[in-house]
Amino acid sequence: MKVSTRMFSVGVAMALAAVLMQAVVVRAQTGASGAAAGIDASKLIDLTYDFDEQAIYWPNAKPFEWQKESWGQSAGGFWYAAARYSASEHGGTHIDSPIHFAEGKETLDQIPVSKLVGPAVVIDVSKACASNPDYRVTADDITNWEKANGRIVEGGIVLARTGWGKFWPDRKRYLGSDVAGDTAHLHFPGLSREAAELLVSRKVRGVGLDTASLDYGPSKDFIVHRVLNGAGIYGLENVANLEKVPTTGATLIALPMKIKGGSGGPVRIVVLVP
User: Among the options 100, 185, 187, 225, which is catalytic?
Assistant: First the structure.
C-alpha cells in the first residue's frame, strides 16, 4: 500500500548480523541444538525480492529508481562505484508500520527491534487461492491450523502462504492489472476481517503474506490493515520464497530501513530454519 515517497538509506547489514546472532543465542537458550559460535548458512532463507525495475509497487505509487552516479576508474586510478535510488515506501518486499492505517501508532523508526524478530508461523492457503484469486484467509483457516499445530504462540509472526509468489514479477498476474494507476481491477488474495481479529487476540507481532497487500485485491475499505495496524501489529507484504519456510520452527528477522516517521519501507526478511 502506498502513502508517501521517500529516499532510501542503506546500512542494515551490521544490524542484521547482530540480530541473527541474537536469534542463535535465543534458540540455544530454549533448548535448540547447535549453540555454536556461528550461523549455518544453509539454514538461512532470504524472503526478499530484488529491488530493481521489475519490483512490483502499488499501481499509483512511485516505482523503484536506481541510477549510477559514478561507476568506473576514478581520476586517481582506483575503482569507484556509487549510485542513487528512490521509491515509495510501500513496494517490493516491504513493511507496513502501524501508523500506516492507525493514527498515533508506531512509525517505522519507533518499532522496537525486539518486535522485528520472532517465531515464524506459516499458514498454507495456496489450494484455496488457486481456484479463487480473491480468496480471503478465514478464521477457520487459522483455527484449523491450530488444531493441527497448536495455538499460535504469543509474539509470533504469522505468514499466509497463498502461492502468489509464483507470479512475481508479472504485474498482470500478480496484481490483476498491469495498467499504471489502475486500482479498480486488482485481484489477489488477502486476509478476512475475522482472521485479522483472531490474530489480534493471539497477540502476534506481525502478519505477512506473499501478495501485494494484507487486504485482498478488490478491497475498498482496507479493513484488515485497519484492524491489525490499530492493534499495533505491523504488516509484511510481497514476501518471497514462502514455500521454503516450514510450518513452524523457524525464526524470522525483518529489518527495514529505519525511516524516521515512516509509514513503512523496504525490508530485508530472512528466516533461520531448524
Answer: 100
Q: Is residue 174 part of a domain?
A: yes
Query: 220: domain range?
Result: 5-64+85-272
Residue 194 lies in a domain: yes
- Predicted TM-score (pTM) of this structure: 0.87
100 given a catalytic annotation: yes
Residues contacting residue 203 through CB under 8 Å, at least 6 positions apart: 154, 155
- What secondary structure letter does DSSP report for 215? B
Structure confidence by residue, pLDDT tens digits, 50-90: 999 999 999 999 999 999 999 999 999 999 999 999 999 99
The domain tally of the chain equals: 1
C-alpha span between 196 and 162 (Å, rounded):
16
DSSP state of 273: -
Handedness of CA 193, 149, 27, 153 (dihedral sign): positive
Residue 72 within a domain: no
3-state secondary structure of 223: helix
Residue type, 97: S
